[in-house]
Q: What sequence folds into this?
């Protein structure tokens, strides 16, 4: 019985793996578009041709691009992300703590945003076209038009400077207690929540409305089922799939929103690290971090699709 | 046909605010009370009669910076949107008309580009490209053209099988004629309603890049760059950075209101579901 589902899931994962490889090629090629090379950017314009040649030899830049790509990929697969140009230190240890910080921030925001979005989406459907629905869609319009830093700095201005409830800068360090950590990420997590909330809510509303307007719901109502039974037996099982899908897609979006939010709150995460090294033109770091961001995004998208497959009653009970 | 009395209040607000911003952008040197880089007072002076919005982190008049910033912000966003639309729609129409391997190749490549978050890929590419305005417009326009490509391909695939297109093909018209004389005029309405949204996206994207220090480079600044310049004042209770940030939000909302109204109007004209 579970065969068609299993087959779809395996297909989706296989496609995802192919996509990940294609994305790694794209990111590698994207950083090779300029004629200048890494050696030049390390040594600067005043480097002698001899020292340039030596460094190129040392970094293996004389090999053709595809060989460098496979060496890079091989390193990635064994957990070796290479060394940063600016510091000369290996990238992987520098990243791991920051990755944990970013995931902590994103998870905090998700734990608040997901239930809130679903609740507000349900409210909007329940009181459709009423004042609550209108207020929710006005909020959605505003929040999709606000840049992340507007929301972020408004929060800082009021909550950190005027009322001094939370710190303006989210410092986290080892040995901090969980509660201290939570207080440190309160403002960035709120900013992230506000950034994704509107979109998540609007899509949830649309997904549930779509189910509620289908013919089988009308049939269930017409045959005299109690409203609660209509929702429990007919609407809910069909609405899970689109709602889970909406949630996962927005979590993927949250992973990107984290970049700007981390810079606003000077939070020591992956986003801040990426932006710093783009400014310094530290290509190996940018490649590695860019690929990690893309991978998280792609994996969340795969999970969204799988959740939709598993939750689809038509696939679970094939005729 | 356009009855001024029938424009809803939301659209009025949108039109007036957008118009005001565009006016400032076009006539910046005549409207601005001071020069763009002119230092006129102390650092972060509060709002006063001489400096309506106060001064910025280097003592430049914030209002004048905002007006010049409108110019850069809107100019880059307009050019990037124009590039995204020309590139995306021409490739999308061509893919729909030509079909076959060209369509498959283009569509899979666009899928690939869209599987990486736009901001992340832009950061990756900008780490090696020179930081100037032309690069910025190219990167923004090309990355955003993927979305226009998807839309215009989907629209064109539908139009391509209509009788008048078949007739044109049987007449022996070339692909250029089919694309520009048959498909383009009929695909214009959905594309125009997408235009507003893409423009807003371009404004927000540019602002984010400049805020991260990878967009417009000093001494000139767009609104996102001005937020970056003034952000350190926030912790001292100086709200200078909130002004350009709020302006970006105001521009995005007003363009959104206008786009909504146009969308409703065009669906009205077609006798479809409008005003809903």
A:
């Amino acid at each position: 019985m579970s065969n068609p589902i299993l087959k779809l899931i395996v297909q989706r994962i296989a496609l995802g793996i192919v996509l990940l490889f294609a994305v790694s090629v794209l990111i590698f090629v994207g950083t090779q578009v300029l004629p200048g090379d890494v050696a030049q950017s390390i040594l600067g314009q005043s480097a002698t041709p001899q020292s340039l040649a030596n460094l190129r030899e040392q970094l293996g830049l004389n090999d053709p691009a595809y060989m460098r790509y496979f060496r890079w990929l091989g390193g990635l697969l064994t957990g070796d992300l290479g060394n940063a140009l600016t510091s000369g230190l290996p990238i992987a240890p520098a990243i791991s703590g920051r990755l944990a910080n970013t995931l902590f921030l994103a998870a905090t925001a998700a734990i608040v945003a997901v239930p809130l979005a679903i609740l507000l989406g349900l409210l909007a459907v329940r009181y459709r076209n009423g004042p609550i629905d209108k207020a929710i869609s006005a909020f959605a319009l505003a929040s999709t038009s606000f840049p992340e830093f507007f929301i972020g700095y408004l929060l800082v201005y009021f909550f950190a400077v005027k009322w001094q409830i939370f710190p303006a800068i989210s410092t986290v360090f080892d040995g901090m207690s969980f509660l201290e950590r939570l207080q440190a990420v309160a403002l960035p997590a709120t900013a992230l929540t506000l950034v994704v909330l509107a979109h998540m809510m609007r899509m949830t509303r649309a997904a549930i409305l779509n189910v509620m307007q289908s013919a089988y719901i009308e049939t269930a109502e017409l045959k005299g089922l109690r409203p609660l039974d209509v929702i429990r037996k007919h609407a809910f099982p069909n609405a899970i799939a689109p709602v889970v899908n909406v949630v996962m897609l927005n979590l993927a979006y949250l992973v990107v929103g984290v970049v700007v939010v981390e810079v606003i709150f000077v939070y020591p995460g992956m986003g801040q690290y990426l932006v710093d090294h783009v400014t310094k033109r530290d290509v190996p770091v940018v490649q590695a971090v860019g690929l990690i961001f893309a991978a998280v995004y792609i994996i969340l998208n795969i999970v969204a699709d799988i959740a939709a497959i598993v939750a689809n009653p038509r696939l679970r009970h094939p005729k | 046909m356009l009855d001024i009395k029938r424009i809803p209040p939301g659209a009025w607000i949108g039109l007036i605010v957008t118009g005001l911003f565009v006016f400032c952008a076009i006539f910046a040197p005549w409207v601005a009370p001071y020069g763009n880089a002119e230092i006129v007072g102390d650092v972060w002076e509060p709002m006063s009669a001489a400096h309506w919005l106060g001064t910025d982190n280097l003592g430049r008049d914030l209002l004048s910076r905002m007006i010049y910033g409108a110019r850069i912000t809107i100019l880059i966003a307009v050019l990037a949107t124009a590039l995204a639309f020309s590139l995306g729609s021409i490739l999308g129409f061509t893919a729909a008309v030509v079909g076959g391997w060209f369509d498959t190749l283009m569509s899979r490549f666009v899928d690939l580009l869209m599987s990486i978050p736009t901001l992340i890929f832009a950061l990756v590419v900008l780490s090696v490209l020179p930081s100037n305005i032309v690069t910025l417009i190219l990167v923004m326009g090309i990355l955003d053209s993927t979305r226009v490509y998807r839309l215009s391909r989907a629209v064109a695939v539908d139009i391509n099988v209509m009788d008048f297109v078949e007739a044109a093909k049987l007449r022996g018209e070339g692909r250029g004629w089919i694309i520009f004389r048959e498909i383009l005029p009929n695909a214009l309405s959905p594309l125009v309603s997408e235009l507003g949204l893409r423009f807003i996206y371009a404004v927000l994207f540019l602002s984010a890049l400049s805020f991260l220090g990878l967009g417009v480079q000093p001494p000139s600044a767009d609104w996102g760059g001005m937020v970056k310049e003034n952000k350190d004042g926030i912790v001292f209770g100086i709200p200078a950075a909130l002004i350009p940030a709020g302006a970006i939000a105001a521009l995005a909302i007003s363009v959104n209101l206008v786009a909504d109204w146009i969308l409703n109007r065009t669906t009205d004209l077609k006798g479809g579901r409008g005003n809903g």
Observations:
- The longest helix of chain A spans residues 227-264.
